[in-house]
Amino acid sequence: MTTVFYGSRAWGLFHRASSSSSSRVWTHPPFVGLSPGRGLSRPPPCRAAHSGVRRLPFATLSQQDRDFFQTLLPGRALTDPEVLEASNVDWLKSVRGSSELLLRPRTTEEVSQILRYCNARGLAVTPQGGNTGLVGGSVPVFDEIILSTALLNQVLSFDVVSGILTCQAGCVLEALSSFVGEQDFVMPLDLGAKGSCHIGGNVATNAGGLRLLRYGPLRGTVLGLEVVLADGTVLDSQAPLRKDNTGYDLKQLFIGSEGTLGVVTAVSILCPRKPSAVNLAFLGCATFPQVLETFQLCRGMLGEVLSAFEFLDSACMKLVQDHLKLTNPIKESPFYILIETSGSSAAHDEEKLHRFLQEVMTSSLVADGTVATEDSKIKALWALRERITEALTHDGCVYKYDLSLPVQHIYQLVEDMQEHLGTRAKNVVGYGHLGDGNLHLNITSPSHDPALLAAIEPYVYEWTARHHGSISAEHGLGLKKRNYVHFSKPAPALRLMWQIKSLLDPRGILNPYKTLPDRASTD
Ligand code: FAD
Ligand code: 2HG
Ligand code: ZN
Description:
Layout: E1 4-6, H1 63-72, E2 77-78, H2 81-88, E3 102-103, H3 108-121, E4 125-128, E5 145-148, E6 155-159, E7 164-168, H4 173-181, H5 199-205, H6 212-215, H7 218-221, E8 222-228, E9 234-237, H8 251-254, E10 263-270, E11 277-285, H9 288-302, E12 306-313, H10 314-324, E13 335-343, H11 346-362, E14 368-372, H12 375-386, H13 388-393, E15 397-404, H14 410-421, E16 427-433, E17 438-445, H15 450-456, H16 459-466, H17 491-504
Parallel strand pairs: 3-5, 4-5
Antiparallel strand pairs: 1-14, 2-3, 6-7, 7-10, 8-9, 8-10, 11-13, 11-14, 12-13, 12-16, 15-17, 16-17
Helix pairs in contact: 9-11
The chain binds flavin-adenine dinucleotide, (2R)-2-hydroxypentanedioic acid and zinc ion.
């Protein structure tokens, strides 16, 4: 059955569509050109966002080190510069390192031996999952050794009674979704990068995504972690239990720590049952206050079946149309909303959705819309939202801001930025997880433009702090945002973070230059 597209007054017809320490001073080299990225050709990359960072006095890789790793990981200690290229550069192609060694362990024991050796030698390490991070955290800044989780990709157990999945950290999110899907469960998180990101990377970034509104953050659904500390100690808190009040919940320290406190090697996560009925409504609204009113109404009328509430503005729609050739299924509108319902009774959910849609149409909150229940149609509608990030990469150099704000202020920031930047920016667009109060503000420019960047930052962070928001809702701080964290966290909290870092990683070998602000700024 094909998706039924509704005209502005047609909701009444609701159908089911269906060596030695180095004392050299290194500063990061400027970014050099890369070949075009995935699929469609992409514009030239932005200059490194972090030139000026100084290399800390870690050891440099010796022949003895190389020999050690070749013996430990035969055929899995890679030094070929061409192979390393993809791991030295981030997904956005905005930052790059110059690592000469990529390690691909298969077991926790191998990770432990790698870190024990690196810690003793003073060699810095960058843990890397799917390398889809958006804040420059997943690639080395200088010559840090890259520790990839790509071969830590085994499911360890799945309990069909409790829904608890235990797997190695390098399992790709989409593969896990398929695995648990076959047993009538779903992963509690979903994101546009699911085809590449690893569950360990998701945990390390405390990723949010499209299902957070329904299933909550990873801090609730991750039940246990196995983590290797900087000195090689294996910390096993894999207890697949929903309730465990035995002292400090240490796993929480590692969730969202972006590879700076330990390497996650295995994850236990609670998977919900797969909902038997899913509906997706794609609606157009004339104003942002109408989007907010629709959200309020929808929470009231859809209640427990509401599973996602996402929005995008018309500039995002234009980007996916122009760059990815996707089709807008409804009448052009300044704003678009995706509302997903999921539950266990199709008839019940459809009736609720039907009543809600009638209400938003008769009250003129919504100008046009379409509903899909068939899998392929649902995927096509989700693509309009999920592929905005990809479309943006074809629009030029992208400056990304991932902010939490009280919902009433969410789009004010986009409008304020549009006015503030005027013609200096190519596009200023807003979209995101409205149901979670999470705005993705993206600003593009034909090429890297330091004057534009200076007009955006710290303005955008000051604005966010003034409106009691957070400067990183879900992507983390990585390299790019770490020195703005004081806009969201007070000085005593930052000092405590550094103390925790020093306790767990006294030599500072784990993902240096990331997440924590420059130490001097917190002393
Ligand atoms: P990487 O990018 O490899 O690493 C991210 C960070 O985690 C780095 O600091 C790295 O050192 C650390 N790390 C990775 N693995 C480990 C490990 N095993 N142990 C310790 N540290 C580790 N994010 C969201 O929150 N919500 C979204 O909706 C979302 N959508 C996205 C859509 C697209 C198209 C893209 C490109 C990205 C999106 N992201 C989103 C950002 C990104 O996908 C997430 O941050 C994701 O969780 C990163 O996983 P990864 O395996 O790629 O980690
Ligand atoms: C999303 O929700 C991701 O699509 C990426 O978090 C957001 O690219 C972005 O700014
Ligand atoms: Zn997001």
